[in-house]
Amino acid sequence: MSQHLSALLVTASLLLPVSGYAQQTTAPQSDYQTKADSPPDQSHGEPIHLYWKKEEIYDRNKQTVTLTGGARAVRGDITLDADVLIGYLRHKASSADQSQSSKKTNDVMGGNMELYRVEAIGHVHVYNKANQGWGDHGIYDIDKNVMLMTGKNMKFTTPHQVLTARDLVEYYPKDHVTIGRGDATVTNDDGRRVTADILKSVGLSNNQKAQKQNNTNSNASKLDRAYGWGHVIIKTDKQVATGDRGVYLFGPELARLIGHVHITQGQNQNNGSQAVVNMKTGIATMLPGHDSPIQGLIVPNEASQ
User: What confidence tier does 236 reach under pLDDT thresholds 50, 70, 90?
Assistant: First the structure.
């Protein structure tokens, strides 16, 4: 962006919770979304730096500031770019003396304000040094430290994976968690793919990243595992495995499927209640359930393929 951008520094003190962000989106409910009801993060009151190219519009009634012409918000190592950014403001909790002094200032919003939410509209791009995400519309909840994104062709990338989703992507940078909702897919750079109605990918912690850098090469995955719920599909170059739910471990490259599992290779098919899929070798192993015996169909001409 231009070096002549105007700049505004707003300190996010993270003192009060905001209304649940699930009410502002069409995201389906999940166990993980109960996080929205937890107390706000008060341990990382990092400032928000805002930049914009054209207008800065204050709305006293709505307590918002709108930045147009291409705008940027930066907090720590996270950067959010969009055509338009709307900052939502509220009064800071302050002592009586501070309240009296604020009345004497020329603050355009009429008091001591803080930023607690940023809405991004048009060509939304959120990124840090390793990961990037794109969408049409986004909401960054500063209290919860979560980015919600919607739009067509949504995509989040890591150095070795691509996550896409149809309905909603939730990005929790502090917890290294990304959740895709609606035909969500994680694709490795070698083409192996995991798809589900809801897909939650969990990145490595900072300690795990440090250990990988010391013990393995720099091409190791930055993701630790992915959980899938609903119509889970795992594709390798040899087989397709489906199930009701599953988990994929990126380190050993193993996946486990549970519930109505079907494994297909050519015309050969095995059915059961559980399976373990080795994504590295492309070999799937069926596991018997309590009441579900393994069933299979083997076509002789393809048995050796």
Answer: confident
